[in-house]
Amino acid sequence: MTNCWRYPAVPCRLEVNQPWWDQFRFADAVDIAIVAVLLYALFIWLHDRASRSLGIATGMLVVVFFLARSLDLYLTMLAFQYGLIGLSLVFLIVFQQDIRHGFERFTSATWLNTSRTARASDQAVSVILEALKEMAESRIGALLVFPGREPLERHVRGGVMVGAELSTPLLLSIFHPKSPGHDGAVLIKDSRIHTLGLHLPLTAHVDQLGGGGTRHAAALGLADCCDALVLVVSEERGTISVAQNGRLETLQEQQLAEALQAYFGSHETKQRAPEKHPIQKLVTPLAALAAATALWFSFAYHTDTIERTFVVPIEYRNVPEQWEIEEPKPKYAEVTLSGSDPAFKLLDPTNVAVSLEIGDVNGGRVFRWNTESNLSNMVTELEIQRVVPETVTVALREKQP
Ligand SMILES: Nc1ncnc2c1ncn2[C@@H]1O[C@H](COP(=O)(O)OP(=O)(O)OP(=O)(O)O)[C@@H](O)[C@H]1O
Predict the structure, then answer these.
(1) How far is the CA of 189 from the centre of ligand 1 (A)?
(2) Which residue out of 196, 215, 224, 237 has the highest number of ligand 1 atoms within 8 Å of its CB and is therefore the one to mutate?
(3) What kind of fold does domain 4-13+302-398 have according to CATH?
(4) Where is the chain membrane-spanning (predicted)?
(5) Assembly ipTM
(6) What pLDDT score was predicted for residue 212?
């Protein structure tokens, strides 16, 4: 396609009497819905994870942005425009773990399945208690890892994925000294036996082991680097200890039950909390929808219809072989379009052209075409105001042999 130039766009505004609902398209509703879902995820994340100061800072930035926008503060808007790219990168780097965790949560959809998880965790506590007691009595060494909020993938090595239902007999057979999988730790995740044979990092705080060996050092080692809860059964002493938040202590049966209930309780807090009133449940989604709608009105919806003029090339097609167009022939046409600013953003003016079919010459020599009806690659949301020249006249002459 030949080059075409775009006039320096100085849009002229037209009076528009159309109410906004007449301009509202299905695509706009989808637009708002997608942004509302993203905002909903952001609100949930802010509520769950973000610190209060981060929330306040974000709120202040939003206020400054809208002030700058409504008062036309050019420099501040420029700072936002460029700063936003940098901020997004910083955000991605600082919160990469949370973002990854969020995607994992989203894809596994455990948050849609909350009541089932609560019931499953009650059962998990009794299964684990029974297995630990039996292993302690029979002097079978064991190491159980319960992940916290922080990911532990980068701290642990090896292991075999199992993905099995949690049961006392299965735990007993995994840690049985004759079982090939008894070495290493078992990861219990989402009330299931997730992985066995995991290798944990060893602690540097050997003074805290209280006579324990490498199994206990491994339990404390993981508790040193993340918020996981690790339970260890001593083969030699028949004791059960817990390692959490950089501390290792031996537990009595009652304390063990409490520790497990606290773990599963804190991981199911939302499920165990009193049922919210249906209206309360709607607050966050409605807030997300309202914010998305407000953003749409602020950024996407434009009451103004603007006009822009482009210079587009005229393409002469199907000129019969023995004919040629006499020079000087018109090469460009001026196309004036009207529509909203977002509609113009969908238009690639370098693809717009007026194409004129010559076809059958029929002995005639001078032709006129209507240029408007031959415009190609137009965006449907834009209206053609005028094309200059309205018609094109060319003279054809037979090629000299
Ligand atoms: N880094 C590690 N990660 C996971 N498990 C480990 C690790 N190091 C050792 N273990 C487990 O601990 C076992 C060895 O336990 P060891 O007797 O040395 O420790 P301990 O703390 O004295 O335990 P116990 O009181 O049961 O004897 C290994 O067979 C292995 O199953």
Answers:
(1) 21
(2) 215
(3) RNA Polymerase Alpha Subunit; Chain A, domain 2 (2.170.120)
(4) 26-46, 53-71, 77-95
(5) 0.94
(6) 85
